[in-house]
Amino acid sequence: MRRQTILRSFIVAAALAGLVVGVYAQGTAQQQQQQLQQQQMLRLQTMTQRMVQIQDRAQNLVKNLDRQMVQTQTQTQTQTQTKLQAQIRALKQMGEGTAKMAGEMKGNLEQWREMYQNRELFQNKQMTKDMNQVQNRLEKAANELDEMLKVMERLANRLQANG
Questions:
Q1: Could you tell me which of 44, 115, 123, 159 has the fewest CB atoms within 10 Å of its CB?
Q2: Angle, to 10 degrees, between the axis of helix 2-74 and the axis of helix 79-116?
Q3: What is the Cα 31 distance to its own chain's centre?
Q4: Using CA atoms, how far apart are residues 137 and 15, in angstroms rounded to an integer?
Q5: What are the residue ranges of helices labelled H in 75-124?
Q6: Under a CB-based contact definition with an 8 Å cutoff, are residues 46 and 135 in contact?
Q7: What is the structure's pLDDT at 21?
Q8: Which residues of the chain have pLDDT under 50?
Q9: How many CA atoms lie within 13 A of 1 on its CB side?
Q10: CA-CA distance, 83 to 150, in Å (whole number)?
């Protein structure tokens, strides 16, 4: 009889221990999910700030190219100057487009951040995986846009040196 009581007590204790471990594991998983979500939100905020910087740089590039166009127009028009103006004009249009793309991406990132705040979306692992893929693609596009702008800035400097 005493053995049965000890055995029952042991089984109850083991079951309770299992429940405690399960609850603890679930709490830890939720904490990890919240930490991941906070990290992703920080990444989105950083990328949004980066898009603002890229947009500002692109707009500055356009202003500098505008000044360069005015300078070349006031000089005596030679065939070389006319070609230079055409190149400046083309680069200026690309700069305007880049500034517009950066603005659009900034808007997309802000919309994405709003979606990320919806905790219900993270209940499904496949949804979380897909959302992370979209965020990675947005980050890759931001990096590409930044690299393209760097090249355009170098081109503008070279055009100015040749002008």
A1: 123
A2: 160
A3: 24
A4: 46
A5: 79-116
A6: no
A7: 60
A8: none
A9: 0
A10: 23
Domain ranges of the chain: 36-162
Distance CA 74, CA 68 (A): 10
For 59, how many CA atoms within 13 A lie in the half-sphere containing its CB? 9
Specify the residue for token string 């009581």: 5
End-to-end CA distance of the chain: 103
pLDDT tens digit sequence for 98-109: 999 999 999 988
The pLDDT score that the predictor gives to residue 129 is 86
Kindly state the tokens that stand for 68: 């360069």
Q: CA–CA distance from 78 to each of 36, 84, 160 (Å)?
A: 60, 10, 16
124: part of which helix (H) or strand (E)? none
Give, for 159, the enclosing helix (H) or strand (E): helix 125-162
Distances (CA, A) of 71 to 61, 93, 130, 155: 15, 18, 51, 17
C-alpha to C-alpha distance for 7 and 51, rounded to whole angstroms: 65
What does the pLDDT look like over 69-94, one tens digit per residue?
A: 888 777 667 777 788 888 999 999 99
How many residues in total does the chain contain?
A: 163
- What distances in angstroms separate CA 77 from CA 14, 32, 83, 86, one per listed residue? 92, 66, 10, 12
